[in-house]
Amino acid sequence: MLGLLWLIPVIPLIGFILLAIIGPRLSRTAVAIIGVGSVGISAILAILVAISFISSPPAGNAFTQTLWTWINVTNFNPGISFYLDSLSMIMVLVVTFVGFVIHLYSAEHMLHQEGYSRFFAYMNLFVGSMLILVLANNLLLLYLGWEGVGLCSYLLIGFWYTNPANGRAARKAFIVTRVGDAAMAIGLFLLFNNLATLNIQDVMQRAAQTWQIGSPLAVTAAALLLGGAVGKSAQLPLQTWLPDAMAGPSPVSALIHAATMVTAGVYLIARTHVLFSLAPSVQLAVAIVGAATLLLAGFSALTQWDIKRVLAYSTISQIGYMFLALGVGAWSAAIFHFMTHAFFKALLFLAAGVVIDAMNDEHNMFKMGGLRTQLPLTFWTFLIGSSALSALPLITSGFYSKDLILFDAYASPSGSTWLWLAGLVGAFLTSIYTFRMVFLTFFGKPKTKAVYQPGSRINLALIVLAAFALLIGFLETPSFLGNINVLGNFLSASLPATSILPQRAGSEGILELVSAVISLVGIYLAYLLFLRVPKTTEAMVQSPVGAVLHRYWFSGWGFDWLYDTVLVRPFVWMANSNKNDFIDLLYKGIIRLNEALHRVLSNTENGLVRWYATGIAIGAVIIIAIVVFL
Amino acid sequence: MTAADVYAILPLIVLGGASVVVLLGIAVHRSHSLTLILTLTGLVAAFLLLPLVSIEAPRQVTPLLVIDSYSIFFSGLIIAASFIITVLSYSYLSQQRGHREEFYLFLLLATLGSVVLVASTHFASFFLGLEVLSVSLYTLIAYSRKEYGIEAGVKYLILAGLSSAFLLFGMALVYSELGTMKLAQIPTSLSNPSSGVSQVFVLGGLALIVVGIGFKLALVPFHLWTPDVYQGAPAPVTAFVATISKGAMFALLLRYFTVVNIHNYPSLYLAFVVIAIASMFIGNLLGLLQTKLKRLLAYSSISHLGYLLVAFLASGPLAAVAVAFYLVTYFVTTLGAFGLITIMSNSDRDAEDPEDYRGLFWRKPWIAGSFTAMLLSLAGVPLTAGFVGKFYLVTAGIGSALWLLVIVLVVTSGIGLYYYLRVVVAMFASLPKGSTIAPAMRISPHFTGALAVTILVLLLFWLGIYPTPILRLIESMVTGFS
To answer: Does the beta-carbon distance from B221 to A595 stay under 8 Å?
Structure first.
């Protein structure tokens, strides 16, 4: 069964090629069958491979499948080979399964849009690239997948390309992530230059052997990889692209900008965790970046009126939690939160897509209300997703994964009370902004009538995701609530276990209780502020302090403004004022030189045979002169 | 000559026999499709015999020819390319008036000449192969009576005659000093101090041979004929001149100057360095602002042969692998590019003007897409065959520390990128409003031509993503060679 591994990424790629070549000529049904079916087959294969992997684990708990070696010269021999261990297994399962459900949803959601086959072609290409990314055995192949998903993200943000704003958002996402990608590429060069291999396992092994803990090379390499990770995962300081990325269709936001691609940074750090363990300062930076991002994004989410932007900031914030977990060495907690987040955030985006459709393409939550009765199924599933996001105690998956992170942030040797506190404040903010969204959209008086009811495929997708958003948390529960460790045990083959300071180990129950209370208080506060006394809230926002804060938070703490002022404008200004400087003269000179040489040489091609014959004779004389006289 | 000898040269005999059959076939019954089938049958039979013959390899057949894994590999490459060109010619000639059948006769003869060249170990077989190839090409180039056709044929006739004279004189000089025309005996006679050989005359003779070879390969400074001939010849013939004729000659060059170890003669080596650098620079510079596609590809081929010399001048087994692999990628890409020009051409003229391809993507997305792939491969962009080929060239060059040549290769590749991309940009540009649609965009490609081009596009990506099988084949070929 494991031998089928290569088919998992290949089948969506075949789907992409088919759709790209014959898609425009196919009926919408055929397009949907190819587009959804390819990912579906991939998901089934992933489950089969997983069953075989778990029931009879391969030697060393990892399976490598080499298809061929791309280029083989001296020690540069990147293979087209896939590496399956428990970490990549979980990633593959989530990507294919969530991907399949979202494709199923899209088959109906996008039905009346232009470019139906183009949409599915991009989506299939995305799934294929993402699977290459997580299965890659060497960093070069990983980078291919990494750039592939970036390309698909760009193409899909700008899917409705006739609106220039969407094109701008797509370019912004591409350029901002490129900053991180450039750092990552340099990191790969550095690793190859020093360790003479790109095979991920070999890199980790050799790094551990050759580099001391905290040695400058290890720190530099880890920092550069972190640069790539923060770009892709929209963390500080490269988080600004994600809110704008919501210009794409809702399924795209669900799949790419919530469930899978944006967590590639988390995967990268977990995959190369040995390197980060060798660079404690960088690992601390990971934790701080995560903590700061989750707070900043949480505040911003409070003030948005666009339902998708709330979800976007919430995604940034939740990935902040994953970074926080990675930073304190709680590797499996980060992956656990990635899993639960993939399900409930995809669910929220898909449900929000239904709401937006039902409101006739209205994104503003303040123009919605009372949808509870008009879209009952969407309401209930959205509520389940929101509860998971707010970590509603005991019954939701978000509770188990987030509280594991909070406990580890407090109790692991590299954790601290401050990191825990940041996470706790973030959790409080999360439940406020989440239920603000629920109350504004689904409660209160209906302001607009729903013009659309979702069909069976959308409902099925929502129900499946809602079920997982509730149940998946029970893979890993705290010691006093059943002490299930299925996921942690499974991941222990690829990721080291989280170490817990003995003196802090006993506080798990208290911490859980505190965060449970915080979550409930947050929900109640949201109820008060946005349902009971919205006027008071309005007044708070209008007050001088409130207005300033609101403006800052609404604009994402002014990062866009900051980058615009500090980087973009000066750069454009310099470029404009230096258009004709002497450095340019050099380049223009090269162009002129080449053109002049071209003209001179073109004169030799004058079509005259006698001249051509003379050319041969002169050439012969020169060659003989060189050979005989030198 | 024993029966085993005859067996070893069966592919050549089959090619020769096929041309006789085609000749007689035309005399009996003039039919385009029948001639095509006879030609293809001959080519396929010769190709299928190669693996059988390789059991006998290596085998010296008379002093003239050697059948070893090296010659078998290049024979296979030449015959496969000839097959593609035959298919393309069918689609090209279907649009033409007048007699079409003799075309295939010359095609088979030219292929035979090329196969003789790659198996040659003696000046006599060198010259015979070259002339069989050249004489067939004179006719082929002037075959269609379109604009420039006859002119190009006559130009090629005169200049090739001139270069053959240089070549013959070089051979005569070498023979007069060493008393042998057998390739294998040249280095031994040359290094024997007691024989009283004048090195100057031998080296001078070798230099004149290089002139003759350089003309065929269109290396600077013997390149001036290239654009005119490329432009005037029918597109499939141009493809033949660009690929088979040059590939066979390069295989011969590599064989001759591996036996006569070029590293032992610094001045000869220097001459090749000068030729390589000049070809890379001048080829790319000439292409820079060229808008006619066939002329552009002519300049491109000058620079590509210059790149090939970099690996030729490197030493070690990797160099021969790099040369052979690069030739394979160059064949696929160049055949693809000319194949696309072929299927866009009509009875009046070949499609090569800027208006033929401006905005082509919006009319014929498949042709434009395939052409883009070919141009990107010529430019050496990753995931295409051209990238892997160039990667091996650079690796071979660096392995022998030929820094100057490698730097020139990289810089001139940068210059070359400009004119390849210019064509790509033009193909994706929007059609000017109110302009009439160029005839090339209205043509519906002939089935056979479209099939051939599709196969070439697939090969292009296959070699770029999964080059291992071809590389293994080439590596086994090289171990048999040096």
So the answer is: no
With contact defined as beta carbons under 8 Å apart, do B361 and B426 qualify? Answer: no
* Cβ pairs bridging A and B (under 8 Å): 106
- Using DSSP, state whether B200 is helix, strand or coil: helix
Q: Which positions in chain A touch B204 (Cβ < 8 Å)? A: 624, 627-628
Q: Which residues contact residue B125 at a Cβ distance below 8 angstroms, ignoring those fewer than 6 apart? A: B64, B65, B116, B119
Q: What is the dihedral of CA A593, A594, A597, A598, to 10 degrees?
A: -150
User: Rounded mean pLDDT of chain B?
Assistant: 89
Which tokens go with B326? Answer: 């690069």
Which of A306, A321, A323, A315 has its CA nearest to residue A265?
A323
Per-residue pLDDT, A368: 82
Q: Does B437 touch chain A (CB under 8 A)?
A: no
Q: Any idea where the domains of chain A sit in the sequence? A: 1-278, 283-542, 547-576, 580-629
Residues of A in contact with B275 (CB under 8 A): 623
Instruction: Give me the mean pLDDT over the B335-345 stretch.
Output: 90
CB-nearest to A619 from B222, B227, B228 is B222
Which residues in A lie closer than 8 A to residue B221 (C-beta atoms)?
615-616, 618-619, 622
In whole angstroms, what is the distance from residue A383 CA to residue A377 CA?
A: 10
Question: Could you tell me which chain A residue has the CA closest to the CA of B387?
Answer: A71
B471 to chain A, minimum CA–CA distance in Å?
Answer: 10
User: What is the DSSP secondary-structure string of B260-326?
Assistant: TTGGG-HHHHHHHHHHHHHHHHHHHHHHTT--SHHHHHHHHHHHHHHHHHHHHHS-SHHHHHHHHHH
Which among B206, B285, B465 has the least Cβ separation from residue A601? Answer: B285
Mutate to test the interface with B, among A13, A612, A614, A629 (most CBs of B within 10 A): A612
pLDDT averaged per 10 residues, chain A (length 630)? 86 91 84 91 92 85 83 78 90 92 90 87 93 92 92 91 89 90 93 88 89 88 92 88 88 87 91 90 91 91 88 92 91 90 92 88 82 86 91 85 87 85 91 90 81 85 90 80 78 81 78 86 86 78 80 80 85 81 80 89 87 92 88
| B246: Cβ contacts below 8 Å, ≥ 6 apart | B216, B217, B218, B301, B305
So what's the pLDDT on residue A477?
A: 78
What is the average per-residue pLDDT within B248-258?
92
Answer for the pair A283, A269: CB distance below 8 angstroms, yes or no.
Answer: no
- CA B419 to chain CA mean position, Å: 22
ipTM of the complex: 0.90
Length of chain B counted residue by residue: 482
Q: Does A66 touch chain B (CB under 8 A)?
A: no
How is B149-186 classified by DSSP, letter by letter? HHHHHHHHHHHHHHHHHHHHHHHHHHHHHHS--BTTHH
Q: Are A138 and A52 in contact (CB under 8 A)?
A: no
d(CA B332, CA B458): 10
Residue B180 CA: distances (Å) to CA of B124, B183, B187, B205: 11, 8, 11, 13
Backbone angles phi, psi at B346, to 5 degrees: -125, -170
Surface of B (213-232) touching A: CB under 8 A: 214-215, 220-222, 224-225, 227-228
Place of tokens 């070929």: B477
Range with the poorest average pLDDT among A244-253, A446-455, B130-139, B295-304: A446-455
Contact at CB, B210 and A623, closer than 8 angstroms: yes
Any CB–CB contact under 8 A between B436 and chain A? no
Predicted model pTM: 0.81
Q: Give the C-alpha separation, A320 to A291, whole Å.
A: 6
Contact at 8 Å (CB) between A504 and A410? yes
